[in-house]
Amino acid sequence: MCRNIRTLRPPYAEAVTDEDVRAAALQYVRKVSGFRAPAARNQAAFDLAVEQITEATGRLLETLQVRGAASR
């Protein structure tokens, strides 16, 4: 279907962009929904899910405490 979602936290990834976080959210929504591209009637729900998961992922990455990782 799509490429795998990669780990976005240190030490696996040091320079994570907003685009990386959104791409991971998109891959997650695609996997869970089973749609690579949703029908027009599902587009709003699909887009909202991507937005909400992007935000939640950003918050998660900002608050994780990883042993030995530099503070952001």
Automatic annotation (TrEMBL):
Matches recorded under Pfam families: DUF2277
InterPro entries, A to Z: DUF2277 (IPR018735)
Protein name (record): DUF2277 domain-containing protein
Species whose genome carries this gene: Streptomyces tubbatahanensis
Lineage of producing organism: Bacteria, Bacillati, Actinomycetota, Actinomycetes, Kitasatosporales
